[in-house]
Amino acid sequence: MHITLEKQFAKLFSVFFHPLLIPIWVYLGLIWQVDLIMLRIPYNVVWKLAGLIFLTTFMLPLSIIMLMLRFKMISSLQMPMRQERIAPLMVTAIFFFLTYYILKTLQIAPVLYVYMLGATLLAVIASAITLWWKISLHMIGVGALTGAFAGLAILSPNTFTMLLILAILVSGLTGTSRLILSAHKPIEVYIGFLTGLALVLNLFLWIGN
After folding, report:
1. CA 176 to CA 169: how far, in whole Å?
2. pTM strictly above 0.85
3. Position 114 in a domain
């Protein structure tokens, strides 16, 4: 019974922190913890922007992935086979880049569009790695989350430290969940996290300087 509950929790955590949901968690974390003026987000568009991000980074790519499932291009939404992850990753990269482009064009929330640029690059890198190795996409996602808040915490410790602590906790729980579910080997979890962390952290530090 204990093992069943453990796996149920791991599945729930894996759903809540699915890679496609990470951008909206980044956004919600920012508007919860950071002044909107500092983020350059007008008060009257806060939730409209949340809806846009949810649409372009989750609903639209998920809809196309569901079509792939319908036409048997992938075997399941978990995509256990390494090769079947490549097309969904490229779809994700396209929609992540679209989100980056929209935010950059509107000049809203520079922190977020820098993150979306990093997320786009990671989706492309992950698809390339997936050609020969099954890296953990969940851990790339939470690694990017941690990298963003780590970079911001270095640049502004008083504002972003709490978000960084929460990101580290989420990353640890997500990695543990993937191992409990036997979705990945430990090395795939560690390398996934470090890949997301390193790229986004360095991107924020480079732009911040």
Report:
1. 11
2. yes
3. yes
Q: Quick one: DSSP state of residue 182? A: T
Kindly state whether residue 2 falls inside one of the protein's structural domains. Answer: no
122 vs 29: CA distance, rounded Å: 20
Joined together, the tokens standing for residue 163 give 């978000």
Residue 200 has a pLDDT of: 98
Q: Identify whether the C-beta of residue 168 lies closer than 8 Å to the C-beta of residue 146.
A: yes
pLDDT band at 209 (very low <50, low <70, confident <90, very high): low
The pair of structure tokens assigned to 1 is 């019974």
| Among 187, 122, 194, 141, residue whose Cα is nearest residue 24 | 141
- Dihedral over Cα of 43, 49, 54, 57: its sign: negative
Quickly tell me which residue has 């935010």 as its tokens.
103
Q: At what angle do helices 86-106 and 110-130 cross, to 10 degrees?
A: 160
CB atoms within 10 A of CB 132: 8
Express each pLDDT in 51-61 by its tens digit.
Answer: 999 999 999 99
| Structure confidence at residue 1 (pLDDT) | 45
Residues 12-16 have a mean pLDDT of 94
> Amino acid identity, residue 167?
A
Q: Residue 116 sits in which domain range?
A: 8-208
